């Protein structure tokens, strides 16, 4: 009896998406509103934030599914700050606990990026440039650029389902 062996390509592992890094000081809801207005999308806050079990970090996420073109747009915060209480190890007269702020990043390779816009569809370079040009027209955004997802070490963090 012959043994059949099926080999699957690595292309099934990755879905095609465009990733854009955005630098700005806006709140997440304000940026979602400006992107909706500028790009003609309808980003809405998901009922639950992204919560990774390996850390205490929760990241806000806004999504829109374009059913006509079968494209999912996701705006997610790259930075999560959590206030924690740290106790001192030595004993003294003024023994207190101090509050510290821990910072977590969704993509640690891009610590300076405030928000990530993930578009689950493979666009041509001209369409990506058109989207970037429209994003850069928003005066509150310092800069935005395309991120090459093939070189990311933490690309598993970009799976939002």
Mind telling me the C-alpha Rg? 20 Å
| CATH structural fold name | TATA-Binding Protein
Shape: globular
Can you name the CATH architecture? 2-Layer Sandwich
Q: Would you identify the regions where 5 or more consecutive residues have pLDDT less than 50?
A: none
Could you say how many structural domains there are in total?
A: 1
Protein name: IPExxxVDY family protein
Organism: Pseudotamlana agarivorans
Fold topology:
Elements: E1 18-24, H1 28-39, E2 44-45, E3 50-51, E4 58-59, E5 61-66, E6 71-77, E7 79-87, E8 97-105, E9 115-119, H2 125-136, E10 141-147
Antiparallel strand pairs: 1-9, 1-10, 2-5, 3-4, 5-6, 6-9, 7-8
Protein name: IPExxxVDY family protein
Describe the model.
It is a single chain. The chain contains 2 helices and 10 strands; from the N terminus they run βαββββββββαβ. The chain has 161 residues and is an alpha+beta fold. It has a single domain (16-50, 58-158), classed as TATA-Binding Protein (2-Layer Sandwich). The strands form 3 sheets. It has a 6-stranded antiparallel β-sheet, with helices on one face. The protein has a two-stranded antiparallel sheet with strand order 3-4. Strands 7-8 form a two-stranded antiparallel sheet. The longest helix is centred in the N-terminal third of the chain and has 12 residues, at 28-39. The radius of gyration is 20 Å and the shape is globular. The termini are far apart. The model has no long low-confidence stretch (mean pLDDT 85). This is IPExxxVDY family protein. It comes from Pseudotamlana agarivorans.
